[in-house]
C-alpha cells in the first residue's frame, strides 16, 4: 500500500488514527475544530499513520499540531515529540529501519511525498 509519509508499506501496518483521542471529553474537540458539535468518528479527526506512529500518538509521545496560520492557505500540520527526554531513544522502526526521535521532531504532514508514483 502507498503510504504518504514513507512510501510503500504492508497494508496491515497502516491504520487510521484519531487526531483527537477518544478519551478527550468536554469542549476540547469543539475548541480544536471550531464547531459546536464534534463527532470524534468524523473524517476530520482521522489520519492514516503507520501503526507504530499511531501507538505513540495514543500514548501521547507525539502530537499532531497545526502550523502557524497563513492567510488563504490550507492548514499545514506537523508531528512533534511531546517528551523531549526521548530524543535520543529509538522511536520508530519501519521496514527494518530504526530511527531516533530527534530526527522526527517536526515531521511535516502536508508536504509532497518524497517519491513519485
Topology:
Elements lengths: L1 E2 L3 E2 L5 E5 L9 H6 L12 E5 H8 L3 E5 L10 E5 L8 E5 L2 E4 L6 E2 L9
Antiparallel strand pairs: 1-2, 3-4, 5-6, 6-9, 7-8
Helix content: 10-25%
Q: Give the number of helices.
A: 2
What would you call the shape? Answer: globular
Euclidean distance between termini CA atoms? 12 Å
Largest β-sheet summary? 3 strands, antiparallel
Can you tell me about this structure?
By secondary structure, the chain is α+β, with helices and mostly antiparallel strands. It has one domain (2-108). It contains 2 helices and 9 strands; from the N terminus they run E-E-E-H-E-H-E-E-E-E-E. The strands form 4 sheets. The chain has a 3-stranded antiparallel β-sheet, covered by helices on one side. The chain has a two-stranded antiparallel sheet with strand order 1-2. Strand 7 (90-94) and strand 8 (97-100) form a beta hairpin. The longest helix is centred in the middle third of the chain and has 8 residues, at 51-58. The protein is globular.
Amino acid at each position: 500500500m502507498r503510504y504518504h509519509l514513507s512510501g510503500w508499506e504492508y497494508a496491515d501496518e497502516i491504520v487510521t488514527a484519531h487526531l483527537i483521542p477518544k478519551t478527550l471529553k468536554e469542549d476540547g474537540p469543539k475548541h480544536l475544530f471550531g464547531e459546536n458539535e464534534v463527532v470524534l468518528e468524523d473524517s476530520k479527526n482521522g489520519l492514516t499513520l503507520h501503526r507504530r506512529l499511531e501507538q505513540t500518538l495514543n500514548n501521547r509521545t507525539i502530537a499532531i499540531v497545526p502550523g502557524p496560520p497563513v492567510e488563504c492557505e490550507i492548514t499545514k500540520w506537523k508531528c512533534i515529540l511531546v517528551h523531549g527526554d526521548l530524543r535520543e531513544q529509538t522511536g520508530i522502526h519501519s521496514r527494518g529501519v530504526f530511527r531516533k526521535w530527534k530526527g522526527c521532531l517536526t515531521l511535516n504532514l502536508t508536504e509532497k511525498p518524497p517519491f513519485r508514483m
